[in-house]
Specification:
The chain has 96 residues and is an alpha+beta fold. It has one domain. 33% of the residues lie in helices and 16% in strands. The chain contains 3 helices and 3 strands; from the N terminus they run H-E-E-E-H-H. It has a 3-stranded antiparallel sheet with strand order 1-2-3. The protein is elongated and about 55 Å long. The relative contact order is 0.17. This is Ferredoxin. It comes from Kibdelosporangium philippinense.
Length: 96
């Protein structure tokens, strides 16, 4: 017979999961072109999470476009900075 977990157990596990997805593994990365610093987590070779610590207007590539940053791809120079750190082994990728 299946029994439900106590609400306190579910709540504490939810908090642990949230921290794992949103905070754990984030590393500061500075764009080599403009110096903007973001937090980055690589979950695989093809997936990364980027959290901006400042306005995206600090990035010249974003600032030059006339659309909201949420509708733009990652800055090409920032992406190159991240990929360089991965290639040098300075930013961990769990699956290799």
């Amino acid at each position: 017979m299946w029994a439900k977990a106590p609400a306190a157990d579910v709540s504490s596990q939810t908090a642990v999961d949230r921290r794992g997805f949103l905070v754990d593994g984030l590393r500061p990365v500075e764009c080599t072109a403009c110096g903007t610093c973001v937090l980055v987590k690589k979950s695989s070779q093809h997936q990364m999470s980027i959290q901006w610590q400042t306005s995206t207007e600090s990035c010249p590539e974003y600032a030059s476009q006339n659309k909201p940053s949420a509708l733009q791809d990652t800055c090409s120079k920032l992406r190159a900075s991240i990929e360089s750190l991965v290639a040098e082994g300075l930013l961990e990728v769990p699956d290799g």
